[in-house]
Design brief:
The chain has 15 helices and 23 strands. By secondary structure, it is an alpha+beta fold. It folds into three domains: 89 residues, Rossmann fold (3-Layer(aba) Sandwich); 70 residues, Dna Ligase, domain 1; 239 residues, ATP-grasp fold, B domain (D-amino Acid Aminotransferase, Chain A, domain 1), CATH 3.30.470.20. The strands form six sheets. An eight-stranded antiparallel beta sheet has the order 16-15-10-11-14-17-22-19, sandwiched between helices. A five-stranded parallel beta sheet has the order 3-2-1-4-5, sandwiched between helices. It has a four-stranded antiparallel beta sheet with strand order 6-9-7-8, with helices on both faces. A hairpin with a 3-residue loop joins strand 10 and strand 11. Helix 3 packs antiparallel against helix 4, helix 4 packs across helix 5 and helix 6 runs antiparallel to helix 7.
Length: 433
Amino acid sequence: MRFLGLGDYHSLGDMYWRLVRSGHEVRVHVREPEAHEIYTGLVPRVNDWRAELPWIRDAGKDGIILCETASSGEIADALRRDGFYVVGGSELGDRLENDRAFGQRVMREVGMQTAATHGFHDLTTAVDFIRRNPARYVLKWSDGVSASTRNYVGELDDGSDVVALLLLERSTRPQSDGVDFVLMQHVTGVEVGIGAYFDGDAFLEPACIDWEHKRFFPGDLGELTGEMGTVVSYRHSRVLFERTLAKMAPLLKEAKHCGYLNINMIVNGEGVWPLEFTCRFGYPGFAICDALHLEGWDRILSKMAHGTGREIKTRGGFAVGVVLTVPPFPYEYGYAELSKGAAITFRAPLSDEERDHLHYGEVAMSEGRLITSGSLGYIMVVTGAGETIKAAQEVAYRRVGNIVVPNMRYRNDIGSKLDRVELATLSALGYLS
């Protein structure tokens, strides 16, 4: 088969590399120059993706285009109209993820309950709103490009900490810059996500349930990152899937959406509170799900692109994924001086099974050595699978211990709170299948 990847930062590099290792032809277009060297020596990169379209078309049904981002939906839709097989979203999907107020409205229209959400295009108006309506709020930017570290979960019941943050933003942002963000009512409970692959007509099942760990430090301390690790399972999702994601199927079918879709939510004794959409492959979620797949990405992508199956073959139990980083992650300033080009080595030789559980991020092959590359210091995701969270956790951290990179950092508690408290809470509330 032939696969053409379209993205900004080579975010699906691990998927491409696995396709290459399985004998498929892969070419990837990476838009951002600072990401051009990622996967050098591992996956071929092309400068002009449009020039590769005849190569894909010549493959017929064996040619698939992958769109990585939630900003290329219009391109994906146009390519589908031209007869190409495209996995990776739609114009509707882009808006569901990036326009948070729109996403919340759609959730309500299809029958989900949502927390009160207020959209703003002016910082002063938002400050006045909180002062008139003191409460605990979550600040989320809606421009589609702001880093996750800029979102903020308010801590104070009168909202004064969010006000202070908005005032700082107003003092540092040029007056000519537009803003687009929401203030969401804070909801307390267990945070959980439901995701599934949509083939343009229906969801492939089973859906995946996930528990993300977004804070930088153990104990959920520090800034919000994209993600520091996640626990996933394909065996406990039915109840929450029917309450949330399944309700989106008619709208997605109308839009001919084809790709992965996830809803993040808070669950408590008052119900299920969906927070936001992710309408693309999640990072590192797609890699951690791979640890539970009984078929390769070629089969899964083909099922989505062609609508040839309604089931993904998966194993039971849980998978734990641990993100490994180097300074100055989650920021990019100073990366070239601190960590870029560092060798990635191993205490003991890797077996084929061990290698399959290393999902590389910003890496490259240089003179026969694996090194850090890119612009952020996101090295890889290490996974472990088991019948229980604890078993999967132990295997994942044993594999982490075999990896040596100067100044490598990671959270050492991925899955611990879930195993200790949250899984039992969800079960008692009746939300686990």
